[in-house]
Amino acid sequence: MSFLHRLTTALLITVASASSFAQAFPSKPVRIVIGFPAGGAIDLVGRIIAPKLSDALGQPVVVDNRPGANGALGLDAVAKAAPDGHTIFLGTLGNLSINPSLYPNPQLNIDKQFTPLMLLTSVSFVLYANPALPVNSVAELVAYGKANPDKLNYSSSGKGGLPHLAGELFSSAVGVKMTHVAYKGSAPSINDVMGGQVQFTFESAAIGLQHLKTGRLRALATTGLKRPAFLPNVPTVAETLPGFEVVNWFGMVLPAGTPRDVITRLNAEITKILAMPEVREKLIAQGTDPVGGTPEAFGAFIQSETAKWARIIKQGNITPD
């Protein structure tokens, strides 16, 4: 047998094997790994998607919570998993774009060790203010800050978290110096906004929505580029400050080297799931808007978000608690 004949035969076997591998997917249960404990917002999103994906794939799809090290434990587990589509990481803006600047980890490289699958949902934050603060809009908040230098303060759930970074971005965008007060978690942060110890905060919608109805908080704006479905009558910050955007998001990545056919299959099935009315209703009820999109679009989005928040972290000389 000639060398050319042997080479051609080997190539045909390789192509056939890759095709048969992709066609065999899934051959066992699929895990959706989440770097947070059960019960949080991202966990609920995973548990909304999992049973529908199980129906579509004909295999069990289980949520595997791996909390710890700001999501690094879950990321590490997925990075070491076989790149065959049976292990998916469901991560946040923090896991995939902010933490590399806040917590440099040479053992984890998002670009090299993972391949994007898709952006699932976006979570607009709300600019919550104490009702005693004499402002009713973003423009009035900025005017108040300029008229009262060094008198505006805002809370966050901790140094380096998205509420803190949102405040830094806002302060920089409007040119008003504001005092940051860090708390150990979202609950004490929002409680002190209601109590008047601090004047405002940027927080996820679910943290404060119930307090809008009682009048203990005032929603000045939301932080996406579009008004979210759960607060359609509240303007965005971008309506006053064009381009301003602070959106947490949840998206899926796979181990690097996952076959293209498997990526395409998973992306197509989850796209169908996000379009289901009952799924959309459940996600919106959790304060998160379904998004979707291609793997390529999500990869570009991760890179742009990483660059954006790295700039804010460096500019503010921000270090984690």
CATH topology assignment of the largest domain: D-Maltodextrin-Binding Protein, domain 2
Q: What's the main sheet like? A: 10 strands, mixed
- Unreliable parts: 10-22
Structural class: alpha/beta
What is the count of β-strands?
A: 10
CATH architecture of the largest domain: 3-Layer(aba) Sandwich
Task: Describe it.
By secondary structure, this protein is α/β, with parallel strands linked by helices. It folds into two domains: 26-122 and 247-315, Bordetella uptake gene, domain 1 (D-Maltodextrin-Binding Protein, domain 2, 3-Layer(aba) Sandwich), CATH 3.40.190.150; 124-239, 3-Layer(aba) Sandwich (D-Maltodextrin-Binding Protein, domain 2). The protein has twelve helices and ten strands. It has helices spanning 3-24, 41-57, 72-79, 93-102, 110-113, 138-147, 162-174, 186-195, 205-214, 260-274, 277-285, 295-315, and strands spanning 30-34, 61-65, 87-92, 114-129, 153-156, 179-182, 200-204, 218-222, 247-255, 289-290. Strands 1, 2, 3, 4, 5, 6, 7, 8, 9 and 10 form a ten-stranded mixed sheet that branches. The chain is globular and about 65 Å long. Residues 10-22 have low confidence and may be disordered.
